[in-house]
């Protein structure tokens, strides 16, 4: 077998392979026997078709199957012999394919980039420090009560946190615009779900009142034709509802899976959850900066085949997110919508793997156990969760991959320029939630 390789562009390679005719012919004979086996042809016993007749009947198909198998086998042997790191599947093109002649074909494919990581000391990380305070705990208790509040109609003026049911219509330069009208719309004041000025303009309103709100659409509004435009909304307040908070009792505590009647014990459990959430948030914020630093300090080529695979994953996620199910063809979503995000994801994966290899990292048993314990601690039966992970190889592998990522982050932080910045629980959780969108 003769092999030659050339670089066509970037990570793309073209391999030309020559295979002796005798090797190809052996495979053609094997394929002919497979195709002839059990066939009944007039004048011959079943399975006893003469080779010449079999070749005339099935020769074209047999050669096609044999050539494809030969190209695959020869290519992957050459990849192994040449110690190539293949990214994605190859495209084959026979260039010489004639009976009695040596087979010659070209295989076009991509390889993984050779990555030499830049020094971690160039990466800058702003590491936040925060703790859960008594005030944070009290705010959390109030928020939990609000989540379970019952809404009662009121004749009093609306304040932040109240719900109003409204009819409204919007106008720009005196003309109604598309999408600016609704009836029976339920709005929680202070939720910031409407454009600036809309909710604050309804503070103080009572049921039965009509209000005229002069506002402006933000410059970054999602509809191009409305960006920065001043608008006037005519609003009719149908009802005002005020929250009736549940009592802090055993029934309320039980709705969160905490079986106790003692407020102090409930607070202790909630605080533990907040501590875990905060610790996870601080790690995630540091990790995001480390990853951003790795991407910024290492400019690498990414295989187009891996980017295409990632685009398909993002398409599938988008379809699932919007409830498209099997009725929606994900290929209707343009690749360009996901290309930038896919390229970034692939680059991050390659850089993380390079860091793992360069530092010869393996999953730390202690870190894997700690991550499983962190998840288990948030369940009513922690032991059941531990058993689930430790007896499920696929789930355990996911935790091990996460442990490796955290070990990379620790390696980078040990060498990076790290500055400590005081923060608080609310800011950390807000930043984590923003980055998840």
Automatic annotation (TrEMBL):
<dbReference type="InterPro" id="IPR005215">
    <property type="entry name" value="Trig_fac"/>
</dbReference>
<dbReference type="InterPro" id="IPR008880">
    <property type="entry name" value="Trigger_fac_C"/>
</dbReference>
<keyword id="KW-0131">Cell cycle</keyword>
<keyword id="KW-0697">Rotamase</keyword>
<dbReference type="InterPro" id="IPR046357">
    <property type="entry name" value="PPIase_dom_sf"/>
</dbReference>
<dbReference type="GO" id="GO:0043335">
    <property type="term" value="P:protein unfolding"/>
</dbReference>
<keyword id="KW-0413">Isomerase</keyword>
<keyword id="KW-0143">Chaperone</keyword>
<dbReference type="GO" id="GO:0051083">
    <property type="term" value="P:'de novo' cotranslational protein folding"/>
</dbReference>
<dbReference type="GO" id="GO:0005737">
    <property type="term" value="C:cytoplasm"/>
</dbReference>
<dbReference type="GO" id="GO:0003755">
    <property type="term" value="F:peptidyl-prolyl cis-trans isomerase activity"/>
</dbReference>
<dbReference type="GO" id="GO:0051301">
    <property type="term" value="P:cell division"/>
</dbReference>
<dbReference type="Pfam" id="PF00254">
    <property type="entry name" value="FKBP_C"/>
</dbReference>
<dbReference type="InterPro" id="IPR037041">
    <property type="entry name" value="Trigger_fac_C_sf"/>
</dbReference>
<dbReference type="Pfam" id="PF05697">
    <property type="entry name" value="Trigger_N"/>
</dbReference>
<dbReference type="Pfam" id="PF05698">
    <property type="entry name" value="Trigger_C"/>
</dbReference>
<dbReference type="GO" id="GO:0015031">
    <property type="term" value="P:protein transport"/>
</dbReference>
<comment type="similarity">
    <text>Belongs to the FKBP-type PPIase family. Tig subfamily.</text>
</comment>
<feature type="domain" description="PPIase FKBP-type">
    <location>
        <begin position="161"/>
        <end position="249"/>
    </location>
</feature>
<protein>
    <recommendedName>
        <fullName>Trigger factor</fullName>
        <ecNumber>5.2.1.8</ecNumber>
    </recommendedName>
</protein>
<dbReference type="InterPro" id="IPR027304">
    <property type="entry name" value="Trigger_fact/SurA_dom_sf"/>
</dbReference>
<keyword id="KW-0132">Cell division</keyword>
<dbReference type="GO" id="GO:0043022">
    <property type="term" value="F:ribosome binding"/>
</dbReference>
<dbReference type="InterPro" id="IPR001179">
    <property type="entry name" value="PPIase_FKBP_dom"/>
</dbReference>
<dbReference type="InterPro" id="IPR008881">
    <property type="entry name" value="Trigger_fac_ribosome-bd_bac"/>
</dbReference>
<comment type="function">
    <text>Involved in protein export. Acts as a chaperone by maintaining the newly synthesized protein in an open conformation. Functions as a peptidyl-prolyl cis-trans isomerase.</text>
</comment>
<dbReference type="InterPro" id="IPR036611">
    <property type="entry name" value="Trigger_fac_ribosome-bd_sf"/>
</dbReference>
<keyword id="KW-0963">Cytoplasm</keyword>
<dbReference type="GO" id="GO:0044183">
    <property type="term" value="F:protein folding chaperone"/>
</dbReference>
